[in-house]
TrEMBL record:
Reversible hydration of carbon dioxide. Belongs to the beta-class carbonic anhydrase family. PROSITE patterns: PROK_CO2_ANHYDRASE_2 (PS00705). It is an enzyme of class 4 (lyase). InterPro entries: Carbonic_anhydrase, Carbonic_anhydrase_CS, Carbonic_anhydrase_sf. GO terms for molecular function: carbonate dehydratase activity; zinc ion binding. This is Carbonic anhydrase. GO terms for cellular component: cytoplasm. Its cofactor is Zn(2+). The keyword Metal-binding applies. One of its GO terms (biological process) is cellular response to carbon dioxide. Keywords: Lyase, Metal-binding, Zinc. Its EC number is 4.2.1.1.
Length: 213
């Protein structure tokens, strides 16, 4: 058993050794297999929040999920980083599903409930989410507290990101040619569970988002 260190860097290095040891014991070929390439079926676009590591919360293994994460799981039309990840995953890795996953207790969604100054970069990044809040002010004001409002903003933000993804050339082509589907989800931090959204970004989804031309 490898003792875990107190220093954060020493902690992750020791943790890695433990991970490598356990993985190799369970499957001696695990890492050799990973060197042969990657064939993930899912592209996951999630929040950078440290509490929602997609491979862990979905009980998946390295190689199962191709990932892009940022503050509040946003997909902006002019974001070259997200667009390049999408193109690589969809065109070259040929993923079958794209997931945009928001979550409860999201700092970005909560910050978007007001126009407080967060600094130039964060103000710019969250501007589209704050615009969503302004657009849906009447609906949000009917809710009892900021937690509920932040969850609804997170849902609306997932929907908006899906709308942007629908316009990505690689996504549009893959939808037509091989049936790629795009799904919106919310991870409930307090329950540790994923909730699938319907196409309207509703709270009780019945399945998936399906991009159209």
């Amino acid at each position: 058993m490898i003792a875990l260190a107190a220093d954060p860097i020493d902690r992750i290095v020791a943790g890695n050794l433990l991970f490598a040891q356990k993985t190799s014991e369970a499957n001696p070929n695990a890492f050799t297999d990973l060197t042969k390439g990657q064939w993930p079926e899912i592209l996951w676009i999630g929040c950078a929040d440290s509490r929602i590591p997609e491979t862990t919360v979905c009980d998946c293994r390295p190689g199962d999920i191709f990932v892009h994460r940022n503050i509040a799981n946003c997909v902006h039309p002019d974001d070259v980083s997200a667009a390049s990840v999408v193109e690589y995953a969809v065109t070259h890795l040929k993923v079958k599903k794209v997931v945009v996953c928001g979550h409860t207790k999201c700092g970005g969604a909560a910050a978007s409930l007001s126009d407080a100054d967060l600094g130039l970069t964060l103000n710019t990044w969250l501007h589209p989410v704050r615009e969503l809040r302004r657009k849906h002010t009447a609906e949000l004001e009917k809710m009892l507290d900021d937690d509920a409002r932040a969850v609804r903003v997170a849902e609306l933000n997932v929907q908006q990101s899906i709308d942007v993804l629908k316009q990505h050339p690689a996504v549009k082509k893959a939808v037509v040619e091989r049936g790629l589907t795009v799904h919106g989800m919310i991870f409930d931090l307090g329950k540790g569970q994923l909730r699938v959204l319907d196409e309207a970004g509703g709270k009780k989804g019945n399945g998936l988002w399906s991009p159209r031309n």
